Structures are given as structure tokens and as C-alpha cells.
Amino acid sequence: MSRDARWQTLLALLAERRRLDVEEVAADLGVSAATIRRDFDRLAEQQMLVRTRGGAVVHGVSYELPLRYKTARRATEKQRVAKAVADLVTPGEAVGLTGGTTTTEVARALAVRGDLASGAPALTVVTNALNIASELAVRPQFKIVVTGGVARAQSYELVGPLADGVLGQITLDVAVLGVVALDVVHGAAAHDEAEAAVDRLLCERAERVVVAADSSKLGRRAFARICATETVDTLVTDTAATPETVRRFEEAGVRVVTA
């Protein structure tokens, strides 16, 4: 396993378990304890974790993995969800895309759709995510609109009041939200309040709102609310979502698509 792959795995495990032990992780990954100690030391230098005696814990009270380390987590489920979301988009529409790993996969799914290979434009995509804009900018059939704002290193998203000026002047057919949590009672949420504020504006400018979230995000709460559940028209998730969870969202008026 390469160092980058090992670091990605360590950070994913840390996000799930909140605390890691050197000896246990070394056994899990099939490497020496000395290697894991060095990895923890380097990650601690980058403020990605906090070293403890014999292990590591998450950095800070609210822990958020940078986007580059999230990509491989539940990748298959995210790709299935993304294709199903992309299939909901009609040629010629104006689509808002928030940042995140799942919405990045949505952008990629839209990019390879045969019926969106040409048009004037085939789609108008409005996004505050620099990585999504960069990937789609090479598609001449797509009109790409990027909001203003200050870039967050964790998610590549532009946030802050500069985004308001752009979003206040446009209308969208559909807003596709990537979320860290979606709960029937508490709605859709993000870790960061500035990201949530921009996502909320995208929702307000859209005719319909689609949440793209794998099943691990459902029934969870996070710090910054994006919108209430009744704002969401469609939830696209994976087939691991329990029947009870699906039923609760449907009873709340949300159309649920499983992929």
C-alpha cells in the first residue's frame, strides 16, 4: 500500500472511530507499528490529527476530512447515487451543484451522458465548488457559472457574502445538494455554517431540490442546517437505506430514489 493510500485509510478510520491505536491499526493494515507512528507524526504536523500516547485522536471538536481524503469512502455507492441523480436532469436545464464527493460524481455522470454531448448549452451548471467547475470547464457544451467567495481548503467550496451577489441574480431548475447529514426532523446539514449558507441560497433559487446522499448520511445530524426536510423534493440514496428510513422520508413528502 502506498503512503498516500495508507494516509487516506488512516484518516477514514479516524473519522469513523474517533480514536486509533498504533498496534491495532498496524495489524489491520499489515504494516509495522513504526510505519504507523511515522504516519501519525506526519499527519499531526499537518494538523490532520492529534497524537496521543500509543495512538491518535481526531483534531478538534468538530472533525471534517478534507475532500481529497474522502474520495474513496463508499465510492461505489456514491457513483450509483450520482448516476441516478444525473438521470433526473433534463437537457437544457440550469443545475446548481454544491461541493462534496457525491456531487463531484454527479458532475462526472452528467459529463458522460450521451444526450448532453452537444447543445447551446446542453446544460448550465452553477457551482461554488472549484473542483467541479474545473472538471466541467473543458466541456464546451456546458455553460459553467462559478459563484464568488473565499475558498475552503477542506471542500474546495467558495463561501461568504461574495456568493450572494451571483446567486441573488439567477434562477435554477434544480439544485443538487451534497450533505453530511439528512434527518427527517432536523433536515439537511453541513459541518460548516458558511457552506450551509451558500447551499441554502442554491435551494432558494431552484424550482426543485435534490439531495444526493449515500445511506450513511441518513438519520444523522450536523452542526449547520442547510434546509428543512420539506424543502427537499427528491432524495437519491443507495439500496442500503432501511425500509423504515425510506418510509419516514416518504411520509414527510420526499420522493426517495434508491440506486
Write a brief caption for the model.
The protein is α/β, with parallel strands linked by helices.
How much beta, percentage-wise?
15-25%
What is the N-to-C succession of helices and strands? HEHHEEHHEHEHEEEHEEEHEEEHE
From the alpha carbons, calculate the radius of gyration and give it in angstroms. 19 Å
Regions with little confidence, pLDDT below 50 for 5+ residues: none
What's the rounded overall pLDDT mean?
A: 91
Helix content bin: 25-40%
The shape is globular
Given helix and strand content, the structural type is alpha/beta
Distinct helical segment count? 10
How many β-strands, per DSSP?
A: 15
Biggest sheet descriptor: 7 strands, parallel
Distance between the termini: 31 Å
Strand order of the largest sheet: 6-5-4-9-12-14-15
Q: How is the topology of this model organized?
A:
Blueprint: H1 3-17, E1 19-21, H2 22-29, H3 33-45, E2 50-52, E3 55-57, H4 67-70, H5 75-86, E4 94-97, H6 101-111, E5 123-127, H7 130-136, E6 142-146, E7 150-151, E8 158-159, H8 162-167, E9 172-178, E10 181-183, E11 187-190, H9 193-204, E12 206-212, E13 224-227, E14 234-237, H10 243-251, E15 255-258
Parallel strand pairs: 4-5, 4-9, 5-6, 9-12, 12-14, 14-15
Antiparallel strand pairs: 1-3, 2-3, 7-8, 10-11, 11-13
Helix pairs in contact: 2-3, 5-6, 6-7
